[in-house]
Design goal:
The chain is mainly β. It contains 1 helix and 15 strands, in the order βββββββββββββββα. It has one domain.
Length: 261
């Protein structure tokens, strides 16, 4: 099914009513405001709330073994969400999902603003497991994944490994709180231990994760404002007070001398 039939998948910004965060209610990205002309094209979403425009663009990527990333086709499955088909990979279950079997597959999400904290994923379909690796890109120019492998992303300029998360339920919440990380570009990948360089653990394993993403949420974080200094009479420096005292004393002396004459 082509991605322009976008009936069930809802991409959302969850705008939190928290100190320091923008508050505009929930912003949904769905078939009404997301467009794609073919299964290999990016999904582009745009909407507005409280007079502010929001957008998200989603593309598919994959890297085989220690090879570099290449573009991969996005596929939408009604009622389940988005999967990825890598080159030379079968489109049958379970490899029609975002997975780490044979190739590590990932979604690159661009919000068009550096102050966005990606903090929730929704899984519409899972086979075996759905562990994920999350990275952010803080560079000023769009990242070029085609020059990178999974292993060298963590050391590449602008890239930062945010975390690996084991699947426990169909809703994954992460990167929350006052220290939440923000970025314009976010990589949502099937788990791969090479992103972090840390060995797989009991709850995280390579080659056995398959999922379709049915939605995600993020929080635009308000930029801190710098207080405007108030205008007022400048406070004299200590040296100014001393000079004023000397001048006053001289004035008094002259007045006394005048009276004596």
């Amino acid at each position: 099914m082509k991605l322009n039939d976008f009936r069930v998948l809802a991409f959302t910004f969850a705008i939190a009513a928290t100190t320091g965060l923008a508050h505009a209610g929930q912003i949904s990205f769905n078939d009404a405001n997301c467009q794609a002309t073919s299964s290999s094209s990016p999904v582009t979403c745009s909407t507005s709330a409280a007079g502010v425009n929001y957008s998200a663009t989603v593309t598919g990527w994959s890297a085989s073994g220690g090879g570099k990333f290449g573009s991969a086709a996005l596929d939408y499955y009604s009622g389940y969400g988005v999967g990825i088909t890598s080159p030379y990979e079968p489109t049958t279950s379970p490899q029609h999902a975002i997975d780490n079997y044979g190739a590590t597959e990932a979604l690159l999400i661009s919000f068009g603003s550096t102050n966005v904290a990606l903090n929730q994923l929704s899984f519409g379909w899972v086979y075996n497991d759905a562990d994920v690796s999350i990275l952010r890109y803080t560079g000023t120019q769009a990242p070029t994944l085609t020059t990178r492998t999974v292993a060298d992303l963590k050391n590449a300029a602008g890239w930062e490994w945010v975390g690996d998360y084991a699947y426990t339920s169909d809703i994954l919440n992460f990167n929350t709180g006052t220290d939440a990380k923000t970025a314009s570009w976010w990589l949502v990948s099937a788990y791969d231990s090479a992103y972090s360089g840390l060995a797989p653990s009991r709850n995280l394993g390579d080659d056995n994760d398959f999922f379709k993403l049915s939605g995600f949420a993020a929080t635009p974080v308000a930029k801190p404002t710098t207080p405007t200094p108030t205008q007022g009479n400048p406070v004299p420096e200590p040296g100014t007070f001393a000079l004023f005292g000397i001048a006053l004393a001289g004035f008094v002396a002259v007045r006394r001398k005048s009276k004596a004459m």
